Amino acid sequence: MGFENSIIGQIGNTPLVEATHLINKKGVKLFLKLEGNNPGGSVKDRPAFNMINEALKRGDIKKGGTLVEATSGNTGIALAFISKLLGLNMILIMPENSTEERVKTMRAYGAEVILTPADIGIEGSRDLAFKLRDEKGYTLLNQFENDDNWKAHYKTTGPEIWEGTQGKITHFVSAMGTTGTVTGVSTYLKEKNKNIIIVGAQPDDNSRIPGIRKWSPEYVPKFFDKNRVDQVVEVTEDEAKAMTQRLAKEEGVFAGMSSGGSVFCALQIAAQINEGVIVAIICDRGDRYLSSTLFE
């Protein structure tokens, strides 16, 4: 089945724009990859489509079947609209403190949403997804262990960044959640130029930043290889929030807090180098967070 003329065909090929106000350092350029321009509004459209499409091609799932997945938000939204277009039912499990916009968007696309207690976090949502798979026979895509997650970025995001910078990229910065983006892009870029520095943005121990995680050992995504990341930069909740607000006011880029965290870390890198081309992922759109305190 071809998707070129459908909304699925609009996934990817997102804009790469230069930040012209946040940084003014001769010899150093910062580019922002605007993943909120995907039809589902986030970078997660890429792996969501690849996980479902590859499973269908392998025969792991069939039209009319039911998928279940734990999500903190963006992957769930992407899975909700893509699964319906491909003839599948979708049950999404997420913490009850997720923003109202995310829950309503998933339901608007036709997914069933189950909310788990906030105090057990996304880990608790993941545990329930496994339980429903075992008890109900649903298909669990399991974005945290599914190689089709990171391979989506190897096939699309990485090549787009390489081509968009004409191969001049020196540093790539990404928030680390499921770590699919950083793993896939790193794998591709290192094949092109092993000297490109891959930077992962991670919250410090006292911060909670939607879309960025510091996993406890038993929940670290199975496909994550720490050797794919050259440097990890920590960011606080306040730093990520302030940078998200600056992105909107100074660059006209309306994004979520994980993007603020990514750009904060990118600017830390920029301060340490004399020349280079840095690309930071802007994970999603800010309208997903209007009911939170992010823009207050």
Automatic annotation (TrEMBL):
PANTHER family: CYSTATHIONINE BETA-SYNTHASE (PTHR10314)
Keyword match Transcription regulation: no
Boundaries of every Tryptophan synthase beta chain-like PALP domain copy: 9-284
GO molecular function terms noted in the UniProt entry: cysteine synthase activity
Top-level division of the source organism's lineage: Bacteria
Keyword set, alphabetical order: Amino-acid biosynthesis, Cysteine biosynthesis, Pyridoxal phosphate, Transferase
Coiled coil: none
Catalytic activity: O-acetyl-L-serine + hydrogen sulfide = L-cysteine + acetate
SUPFAM superfamilies in UniProt: Tryptophan synthase beta subunit-like PLP-dependent enzymes
Cofactor: pyridoxal 5'-phosphate
Protein's UniProt name: Cysteine synthase
EC number: 2.5.1.47
Pathways per UniProt: Amino-acid biosynthesis; L-cysteine biosynthesis; L-cysteine from L-serine: step 2/2
Enzyme class: transferase
Entry similarity comment: Belongs to the cysteine synthase/cystathionine beta-synthase family.
